[in-house]
């Protein structure tokens, strides 16, 4: 998965869920944390990654884009 | 009233701005400042949406350094010529007006609170990409420009509807009177009654194949074409009856980086007047490359070709890094992951293919950004001739500035309930389809058709076959688009737009029976002089696609003689 959320560091601030231009995140009400639901729609703009104040998101290139 | 029964919400506004990007935000803010009631509809989230979502490192098109207006218009036109060769490719009066008001725009941008100055407190003028003697680029620190713009828009009292996608425009007689829209998270259906609509949805990018073999289909060839731009404004304008132009000629730069999205080198490499070296793998220098040169390079076994900035000064590399960080911070991280360092590695170049419709293509407007439909305006990349974020802001400010004149005379917008009902039906239909086709699958089929049957080297047989296949795909699968939730409903609506525009693209290519600039018809390899200054205009009339080839106006007499 190219976008990984580190749930140990995530504070549930919703920045990634709010800002993603492709809306690939959904909000999981049960754990009050984001989920990467539509990862195949990610286009690697890096906005979630750079806006995450806790550095809880990592983006890596999948093989098909290497 | 029955409208409330059809729609979940009815919004009444003076001006509807469609698209909250780098053009739409200043337009909305300025129109609100003028005392108008403004509603801004954005498919993503205004804080980080559009081309400038991750930032911008330069704004262009300020005629500085003693450049006269006629000279400026000439540069402006020459910039288009490598796409389409000699002659006028767009309405030159737009270029004139942008140039004539550029410094008014700059002042307005500062008044709005956009950071226009460099670290040293001065304007950071940079050279033009091709006309190195003219400094018409302005280097800016616009890493955070979208959060700044979003804040300004809200402060000015604009009603912002984020995560909302326009379905279609509403019309009454010959006038645009608003739009219908859906919320892409809740599925709510909106009717927005407006006296005027400004289309600011950027370009149309998702027409050709992404270069990834399997997933990540919304990734595009070029980092300037964000995944979200599916031509929503082009298509909505077209379906309402507005005229589109140059849908045959997409953007096709001569070269692109093989790993563009991963490591763009910013505008600095071009704009600071330091030419990068282009080398064959053998080390032999390749003079300014284009697709014809590349054919020769390939034939002689000299490819791949690389761009080298390895031996540039430490200072240059530092500045390049700032430029990249300003526009796409993640590039630096991904380049590091892949072990790429511009001080020791070279950027692989690939000959380009059409990747989006922005510079020449779009809604046709006059220099006041009025489309062929009353009450409908197009700014930024959505407007033919306006390209990149500088002119997007300028065209937005200019349009908003004159908006009260139109709005005060427009009268109350009349809404046709049957039209709203029919748009609602079209919009929400995919939610009830079972065992249908997923939007990404259908989109990939359309893009494969464009890649295989249009592509770089076009010919009549291929275009006809592509058109036939697209037609059967439309008949068979468009009604079967299915969406299990509002998110996928947005994708379905996008595919509907992409389908319409891909068809227009093929129809326009069929009628351009010549080769010019980077437009290649293998069955008509020569430039057809009868197509000089003659553009392809397309509109929908009584449900039929109408194509007209006619001359684009020349610079008006009163503009041509005025110097500065």
Write a structural description.
The complex is a heterodimer of chains A (66) and B (564). With 66 residues, chain A is α+β, with helices and mostly antiparallel strands. Chain A has one domain (3-65): 2-Layer Sandwich (Alpha-Beta Plaits), CATH 3.30.70.20. Chain A contains 2 helices and 4 strands. In chain A, the strands form 2 sheets. Chain A has a two-stranded antiparallel sheet with strand order 1-4. Chain A has a two-stranded antiparallel ribbon with strand order 2-3. The longest helix of chain A has 5 residues, at 15-19. Chain A is globular and about 35 Å long. Chain A starts with a strand and ends in a 7-residue tail after the last strand. The radius of gyration of chain B is 23 Å and the shape is globular. Chain B is of the alpha/beta class and 564 residues long. In chain B, the strands form 5 sheets. In chain B, strands 1, 2, 6, 7, 8, 9 and 16 form a 7-stranded mixed beta sheet that branches. Chain B has a 4-stranded antiparallel beta sheet with strand order 15-10-19-20. Chain B has helices at residues 2-6, 24-33, 69-84, 92-100, 102-112, 145-155, 232-240, 268-271, 291-299, 314-328, 330-337, 389-410, 417-428, 439-453, 460-477, 486-511, 557-561, and strands spanning 9-18, 38-41, 58-60, 124-126, 137-139, 159-161, 164-172, 175-183, 189-199, 244-245, 255-257, 277-280, 305-308, 347-351, 362-363, 376-378, 457-458, 520-521, 534-541, 544-551. The mean pLDDT of chain B is 90. The N and C termini of chain B lie far apart (56 Å). Chain B has 3 domains: 7-251 and 355-416, FAD/NAD(P)-binding domain, CATH 3.50.50; 255-351, Alpha-Beta Complex (Flavocytochrome C3, Chain A, domain 1), CATH 3.90.700.10; 423-523, Methane Monooxygenase Hydroxylase, Chain G, domain 1 (Up-down Bundle). The chains are: A alpha+beta (66), B alpha/beta (564). The interface between A and B is medium-sized, with 28 and 37 residues.
């Amino acid at each position: 998965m190219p976008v990984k959320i580190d749930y140990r560091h995530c504070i549930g601030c919703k920045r990634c869920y709010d800002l993603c231009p492709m809306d690939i995140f959904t909000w999981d009400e049960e754990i009050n944390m984001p989920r990467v639901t539509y990862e195949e729609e990610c286009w690697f703009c890096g906005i979630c990654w750079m806006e995450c104040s806790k550095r809880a998101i990592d983006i890596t290139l999948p093989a098909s884009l290497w | 009233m029955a409208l409330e029964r059809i729609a979940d919400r009815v919004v009444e506004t003076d001006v509807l701005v469609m698209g909250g990007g780098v053009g739409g935000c200043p337009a909305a803010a300025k129109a609100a400042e003028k005392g108008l009631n403004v509603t801004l509809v954005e498919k993503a989230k205004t804080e980080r949406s559009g081309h400038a979502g991750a930032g911008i490192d330069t704004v262009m098109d300020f005629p500085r350094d003693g450049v006269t207006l006629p000279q400026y218009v000439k540069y402006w036109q020459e910039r288009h010529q490598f796409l389409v060769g000699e002659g006028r490719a767009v309405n030159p009066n737009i270029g004139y007006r942008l140039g004539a008001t550029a410094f008014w725009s700059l002042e307005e941008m500062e008044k709005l609170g956009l950071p226009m100055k460099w670290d040293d407190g001065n304007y950071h003028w940079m050279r033009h990409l091709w006309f190195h003697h003219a400094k018409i680029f302005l280097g800016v620190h616009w890493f955070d420009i979208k959060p700044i713009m979003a804040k300004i828009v809200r402060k000015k009292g604009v009603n912002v509807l984020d995560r909302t996608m326009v379905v279609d425009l509403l019309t009454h007689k010959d006038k645009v009177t608003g739009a219908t829209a859906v919320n892409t998270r809740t599925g709510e259906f909106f009717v927005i009654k407006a006296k005027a609509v400004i289309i600011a949805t950027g370009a149309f990018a998702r027409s050709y194949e992404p270069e990834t073999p399997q997933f990540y289909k919304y990734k595009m060839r070029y980092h300037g074409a964000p995944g979200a731009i599916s031509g929503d404004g082009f298509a909505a304008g077209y379906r309402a009856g507005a005229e589109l132009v140059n849908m045959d000629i997409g953007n096709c730069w001569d070269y692109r980086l093989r790993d563009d999205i991963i490591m763009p080198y910013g505008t600095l490499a071009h704009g600071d007047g330091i030419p990068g070296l282009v080398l064959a793998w053998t080390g032999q220098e390749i003079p300014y490359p284009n697709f014809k040169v590349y054919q020769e390079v390939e034939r002689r076994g000299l490819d791949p070709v690389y761009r080298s900035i390895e031996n540039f000064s430490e200072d240059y590399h530092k500045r390049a890094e700032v430029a990249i960080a300003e526009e796409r911070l993640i590039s630096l991280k991904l380049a590091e992951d892949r072990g790429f360092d511009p001080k020791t590695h070279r950027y692989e170049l690939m000959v380009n293919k059409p990747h989006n419709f922005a510079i020449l293509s779009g809604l046709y407007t006059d220099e006041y950004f009025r489309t062929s439909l009353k009450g409908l305006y197009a700014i930024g990349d959505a407007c033919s001739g306006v390209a990149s974020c500088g002119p997007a802001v300028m065209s937005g400010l200019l349009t908003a500035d004159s908006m009260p004149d139109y709005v005060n005379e427009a009268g109350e917008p009349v809404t046709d309930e049957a039209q709203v009902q029919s748009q609602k039906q079209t919009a929400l239909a995919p939610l009830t389809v079972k065992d249908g086709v997923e939007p990404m699958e259908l989109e990939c089929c359309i893009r494969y058709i464009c890649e295989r049957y249009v592509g770089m080297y076009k010919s009549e047989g291929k275009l006809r076959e592509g058109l036939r296949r697209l037609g059967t795909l439309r008949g068979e699968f468009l009604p079967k688009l299915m969406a299990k939730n509002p998110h996928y409903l947005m994708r379905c609506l996008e595919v509907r737009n992409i389908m319409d525009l891909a068809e227009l693209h093929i129809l326009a290519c069929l009628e351009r029976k010549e080769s010019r600039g980077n437009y290649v018809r293998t069955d008509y390899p020569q430039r057809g002089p009868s197509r000089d200054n003659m553009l392809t205009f397309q509109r929908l009339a009584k449900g039929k696609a109408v194509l007209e080839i006619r001359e684009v106006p020349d610079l008006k007499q009163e503009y041509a003689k005025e110097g500065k």
